[in-house]
Amino acid sequence: MTSPSSPNGGVRSRSITPDRSLTLAANITSRYDDEDLEALDEACERGANAMPYIVDAVKADATLGEIMGVFEERYGAYSEEIGLA
Questions:
Q1: Which domain range does residue 71 map to?
Q2: Less packed terminus of the chain by CB within 10 Å, N or C?
Q3: Is residue 24 part of a domain?
Q4: What pTM value is reported for the model?
Q5: Where does the chain have alpha helices with state H?
Q6: Domain presence at residue 29
C-alpha cells in the first residue's frame, strides 16, 4: 500500500513499452473495419443526418479522432481568423 503522500496517489503506474504500444494499436485497429467510417463519409457526401452513422461508428469502437478525420477530410479543419478592428 502506498502512502497518501506518494506522487501517484496510490495508483500503480504501468509503463507502456514500444512492443506493448504496437500490440495495443493492432488490437484497436482490428476491432472493426472501416465500413462504419465509410458509411459516415457517404452520409456527409449526400447531406444526410450524420448522427446515426456516428453512433454506429462509436458502437464499432471507432475513436473520436477517426470520426473527426472523416469530417476534416470532407469539410476541412476549422481555422479561426483573427483580425484587428
A1: 50-76
A2: C
A3: no
A4: 0.58
A5: 18-30, 35-46, 51-59, 64-75
A6: no
